[in-house]
């Protein structure tokens, strides 16, 4: 069973193309994380928030990544991190065409 990790936090920027350029190296490193399947990057410039939705192979790999990522964000001065880990109902997700791979 796969597990979804939802993370968001306050961020002053950059956003859009500037964010893509600034975090390209980080994005590439995330793909190497143990148990990682995919990530959708989220941003809301008006609300000054960013984050992501991740899919991991196991609850343990999602939790381990969250712990590491929270420490990394703290190193950037971001300490107000909201995060949740969810199991996925694969049968319903397949009906609604959610990506499970």
UniProtKB/TrEMBL annotation:
Keyword field? Monooxygenase, Oxidoreductase
Judging by the UniProt lineage, the source's domain of life is Bacteria
Q: Which parts of the chain are coiled coil?
A: none
**Signal sequence interval, chain numbering:** none
Q: A Gene Ontology molecular-function term?
A: monooxygenase activity
Quote the Pfam families the UniProt record gives.
ydhR
Protein name (Swiss-Prot/TrEMBL): Putative monooxygenase ydhR
Organism whose genome encodes this protein: Ureibacillus acetophenoni
